Structure formats: C-alpha cells, structure tokens
Amino acid sequence: xxxxxxxxxxxxxxxxxxxxxxxxxxxxxxxxxxxxxxxxxxxxxxxxxxxxxxxxxxxxxxxxxxxxxxxxxxxxxxxxxxxxxxxxxxxxxxxxxxxxxxxxxxxxxxxxxxxxxxxxxxxxxxxxxxxxxxxxxxxxxxxxxxxxxxxxxxxxxxxxxxxxxxxxxxxxxxxxxxxxxxxxxxxxxxxxxxxxxxxxxxxxxxxxxxxxxxxxxxxxxxxxxxxxxxxxxxxxxxxxxxxxxxxxxxxxxxxxxxxxxxxxxxxxxxxxxxxxxxxxxxx
Length: 283
Hints:
Largest sheet: 5 strands, mixed
Strand order of the largest sheet: 5-6-4-7-8
Distance between the termini: 43 Å
Radius of gyration: 24 Å
Helix content: 40-55%
Number of helices: 11
CATH class of the largest domain: Alpha Beta
Shape: elongated
Number of strands: 8
Number of domains: 3
C-alpha cells in the first residue's frame, strides 16, 4: 500500500501518510481521505478542490480493500494467482503497538499474504509456516510488548473456500469463549469435535439439561480434561492440594452422577457439557 502511495506523493509534491489513527481526521493544515472503516490517507497540506477530485479518482483506481479477499464471499477473485494452496488462516489479535506487530509478521511470513481485518487483528494466509503459533505469540509479546491471541483454522485447499474459512475463525473464537478456553492459541484441531457437535445441534435443535451449576467445579473439570485426567498435574495447575482436588471430583460425581476419573464417565460428562453450552449459544 505505502509503495503505491509514492506515486501520489510525486504528483502532489508533499508527504502522504497511511494510518489507522482516528486522530488523523482532526489534523490542521492537512487533507484526510478515508480508505475504509479504519484506514486514512493523510495529505501533508491543504488541497484545492481540483486536487481533491484528482486524489479521489486516483484512490478509486489504485486503492482496493485487500481484506475483501477473505471478508467477502467472492473476494478470492482479487487474490494473486501466485498464492500457494493448500494453506491455513491464522488470526492474530493484539491489544496495541500495531506497527510493531505488523513488522514482526512481515519478517516472519515473508512469502505469505497478511490482511488487516480490524484495528486490532491481522489474518495471515499461511502456506508453509517456519514457526508454530505458540512461537509467533512468544516473539510478538516479547518484541512488540503487547498481549496476543492466535486462532488457526483448518486447511484451505481452494481459493473459493477462503471466506468460509474466515467465518470459521470467528466461530472458533466464539466457541472457545463459550467453553471457557483460556489458551491464547486456539487451534481448529483442538475444537474439531465441539465444532462438529455444534453443527449437529444447530441443524437438529437439540435441548439438553443443565448438568452443572457450580463455576468452581466446572473449571476444575475443564482443567482436569486439559491435563488428560491426571490428578497431580491438575492439582498443580489449579494451585490446590491433591486432596482438595479429589474432594471436588467427589462433589462433582455427587451432583452429576459422573466420576470423571473414569474414561467412560469423562467422555459422557464432556459430551453432555458441550451440548449444554452450545445449546445455550444456539438459543
């Protein structure tokens, strides 16, 4: 984008800034043109009416919303034919320091397309990642000094699937919140089964009872599952004594009838839990 603006700088003989800062619209002795909902082009001087018309015409011909590649159903038609498939979509959401985050992503994913989908999120079309999502998170947080959340979707084999894949990223984000997933890296592989179950519930309108109404026991069960039903690791993760954990698991069994220390009961409880949570989202 900035490379294309150099042509406009030469035509107008002044500096031009491409920014997301809302404050840019209030700068004195400048002329500001909105590009989309969150980007602005700031001309370094006041323009005449003729110059303004010229700039608007130039923008219409040269500036397109590249993020439409995934945001719109037919947006894939704007994608370069050189883009390699299959690929995965990675959504990187950040709290602040946009320019630093973008610089790190550009240096890490040198051969991939990076799209800005909001003021605080980029989506990367990752064809072959040199690093894992957890490594990207660690790099950005240590170098850009901002908190990060990353969501990775399932494999995309054709350009026509890009918009659907982007919608899936949003579904994964909502699902992770409803299931109280606190991990800052959410992978499609980890939520494959809940996504499938959610789809079934939406199509059939299944109703399920509330099997638990205790936030502490609910969190205990989820951490227990995250640590593969391991008593010692779960107690350490919750910062509680082993006996306290056993007490909670016994209490959970009394309330629900499921002893989740047993594999079959753990499966049954987790399935019922998922159905209840997803049913609340659907209703």
